[in-house]
Amino acid sequence: MSDTLQVSTPSGSTAGYAVELDGITKTYPGVVANDDVSLRVAPGTVHAVVGENGAGKSTLMKILYGAAKPDHGTLRVDGRDVSFSSPSDAIGVGIGMVFQHFKLADNLSVLDNVILGDEPMRRSRFGRIDREAAAVRIAEISERYGLAVDPHAMVRDLGVGSRQRVELIKVLFRGARILILDEPTALLTVQESADLLGRIRGLCEDGLTVVFISHHLDEVVGISDAITVMRAGRVVADVVPGETDVHELAVLMVGSEPAALPLRARGGERPARLQVTGISATTDSGGRLDDLRLEVGVGEIVGVAGVEGNGQDELVDALLGTLPLSAGSVILDGRDLAGESTAERRVGGIGCIPQDRQREGLLLDQPLWRSQLLGHLHDRRLARGRWLRIGAVRRAAEHVVATSDVRTPSIDLPASALSGGNQQKFIVGRELDAHPDLLVAAQPTRGVDVGAQRAIWTRLIAAAERGTGVLLISADLEELLTLSDRIVVMVRGTVVAVHDAETATVAEIGRSMTQAVA
Amino acid sequence: MSTPQLTKVAAPARPAPRRRRLSMWWVLIAVAVTLPVAAYLADAPDLTSAGLAGATLRFSVPILLAGLGGLWAERSGTLNLGLDGMMIIGSWTGAFVGLYYGPWAALLGGVVGGVLTGLLHAVVTLAWGVDQAIAGIVINMASIGVVRFLSSITFAEKDGGSISQSPALDTVPTVSLPGASWVLDPLGEAGVPFASAWARILTGLVTDVSVATIIGLLLVPVTWWALTHSRFGLHVRACGENPTAADSLGVSPYRVRYWSQAISGGLAGLGGAYLVVAASSVYREGQVAGRGFLGLATVLFGNWTPSGVLGGSLLFGFTDALSTRQAASVSALLLIGGAALALRALWLLRAGRRSEAWGNLAVGVAVLVWFVWGPPVPRELVIVAPYLTTLVVLVVARQALRPPAAVGVPYRRSDE
Amino acid sequence: MSARLNERLEALVRRIVSPPRLASVGLHLLAVGIALGFAVAVLAIILAAYGTSPGAVIDVVGQYALTSQGWTAMVNKATTYYLAGLAAAIGFRMFLFNIGIDGQYRLGVFAAAVVGAAVSLPMVLQIPLLIVVSCVVAGAYAAIAAYLKASRGVSEVISTIMLNAVATGIIAFLISPDRLGARDEGSNNTQTPLMAESGWMPSIPVPGLGDVYGFTLLAVLLGVGYWLVTERTRFGFEQTASGEAPRAALMGGTDPRRMIVATMVASGLIAGLVGLPELLGSPTHRYGIGFPAGLAWVGLSIAIIGRNHPIGVALGALLWAFLERCALPLDLIGVPKEVVAVVQATVVLAVVTSYQLVHGISDRNARRRAATYARRAVPVQEPA
Question: Domain coordinates of chain B in residue numbers?
Answer without folding.
Answer: 24-30+43-323, 325-383
